[in-house]
């Protein structure tokens, strides 16, 4: 039986074992996928043990994505650009390949919910690890402009500079932000602390679609706020979670599972 796992801390609430077990069933692959919770300073050792036990690949989530990047011996281009790894794979040559599938997961879910992104003006709230991983995939969809806004403005500026060769991208503070956006993506962790990013209400127009990378059984705080401002549609990040998992599964197994049915089951499971 091929061994896969997800590493994170905390990990008990992780949906990844549920998702990958459904993917394996759907694609008739025989594999085991478990959750592992190393201590904050125990990731490297836990990962080494995993490979020794015959592990074929793993997902990595907070707070270990940067350590996973360092642990990889080869990187995909999207992992190099993100500077973080959420997927590790043991290659046929016995090397550890680091990949980042978060952006592919987000883009697939945005398109599934809002349609093609080409020529749309997109606002990205936040400039942390999640934001970094999704910028290149968003620019690859030929959005007309991607604006990054962050509480610590210097971080948004650095990202806009770093990705400027891949498309039209700019940065702003929350105070200076203006204009209209087709899609607003919340990649801040404000919601995890029951807070909202300080976005001006007038930035949400009747045709604005909002996407919150955070997800919960109930409507997220950001999406509740966006709906109150009259947003056309609001979607949470559960589909991104399933999308990045599907992409990881394809990296490991060479077969792409379908997301829709798994997302439905996960949503049902979440609200129980
Ligand atoms: P980081 O800690 O790397 O970044 C956090 C970001 O949120 C920073 O830009 C920070 O701004 C901003 N922020 C935090 N609190 C506030 C606040 N009160 N007001 C405004 N901005 C705030 O986290 P990640 O980027 O790794 O994750 C961000 C979110 O995305 C999390 O909720 C995570 O669960 C979610 N996520 C979802 C995924 C999915 O599959 N659905 C995948 C990955 C992440 P500053 O720089 O000023 O501190």
UniProtKB/TrEMBL annotation:
Enzyme Commission code: 1.1.1.25
UniProt catalytic activity: shikimate + NADP(+) = 3-dehydroshikimate + NADPH + H(+)
Binding, shikimate: 14-16, 61, 86, 102, 215, 244
Pathway linked to the protein: Metabolic intermediate biosynthesis; chorismate biosynthesis; chorismate from D-erythrose 4-phosphate and phosphoenolpyruvate: step 4/7
Domain Shikimate dehydrogenase substrate binding N-terminal residue range list: 6-88
Source organism, top-level taxon: Bacteria
Keywords: Amino-acid biosynthesis, Aromatic amino acid biosynthesis, NADP, Oxidoreductase
Binding site for NADP(+): 77, 126-130, 150-155, 213, 237
EC supergroup of this enzyme: oxidoreductase
Chain ranges of the Quinate/shikimate 5-dehydrogenase/glutamyl-tRNA reductase domain: 113-190
Domain SDH C-terminal, residue spans: 237-263
Active-site residues, record numbering mapped to chain: 65 (proton acceptor)
One Pfam family it belongs to: SDH_C
Signal peptide: none
SUPFAM superfamilies linked: Aminoacid dehydrogenase-like, N-terminal domain (SSF53223), NAD(P)-binding Rossmann-fold domains (SSF51735)
GO MF annotations, alphabetized: shikimate 3-dehydrogenase (NADP+) activity
PANTHER family: BIFUNCTIONAL 3-DEHYDROQUINATE DEHYDRATASE_SHIKIMATE DEHYDROGENASE, CHLOROPLASTIC, SHIKIMATE DEHYDROGENASE
Subunit structure, interactors included: Homodimer.
The protein's role, per its UniProt record: Involved in the biosynthesis of the chorismate, which leads to the biosynthesis of aromatic amino acids. Catalyzes the reversible NADPH linked reduction of 3-dehydroshikimate (DHSA) to yield shikimate (SA).
Protein family according to the UniProt entry: Belongs to the shikimate dehydrogenase family.
Protein name according to UniProt: Shikimate dehydrogenase (NADP(+))
Name of the gene: aroE
């Amino acid at each position: 039986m091929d061994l896969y796992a997800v590493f994170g801390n905390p990990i008990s609430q992780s949906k990844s074992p549920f998702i990958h077990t459904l993917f394996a069933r759907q694609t008739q692959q025989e594999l085991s996928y478990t959750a592992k919770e190393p201590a904050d300073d125990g990731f490297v050792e836990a990962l080494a043990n995993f490979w020794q036990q015959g592990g074929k690949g793993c997902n990595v989530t907070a707070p270990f994505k940067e350590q996973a990047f360092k642990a990889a011996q080869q990187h995909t281009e999207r992992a190099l650009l993100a500077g973080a790894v959420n997927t590790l794979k043991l290659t046929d040559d016995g090397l550890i390949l680091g990949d980042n599938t978060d952006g592919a997961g987000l883009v697939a879910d945005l398109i599934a919910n809002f349609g093609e992104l080409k020529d749309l003006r997109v606002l990205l709230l936040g400039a942390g690890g999640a934001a970094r991983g999704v910028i290149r995939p968003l620019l690859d969809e030929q959005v007309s402009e991607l604006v990054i806004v962050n509480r610590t403005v210097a971080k948004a500026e650095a990202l806009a500079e770093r990705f400027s060769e891949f498309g039209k991208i700019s940065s702003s503070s929350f105070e200076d932000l203006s204009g209209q956006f087709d899609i607003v993506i919340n990649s801040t962790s404000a919601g995890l602390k029951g807070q909202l990013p300080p976005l001006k209400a007038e930035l949400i127009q009747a045709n604005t679609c909002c996407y919150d990378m955070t997800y919960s059984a109930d409507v997220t705080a950001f999406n509740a706020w966006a709906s109150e401002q009259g947003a056309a549609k609001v979607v949470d990040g559960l589909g991104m979670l399933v999308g990045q998992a599907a992409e990881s599964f394809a990296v490991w197994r060479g077969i792409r599972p379908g997301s829709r049915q798994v997302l439905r089951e996960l949503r049902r499971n979440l609200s129980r």
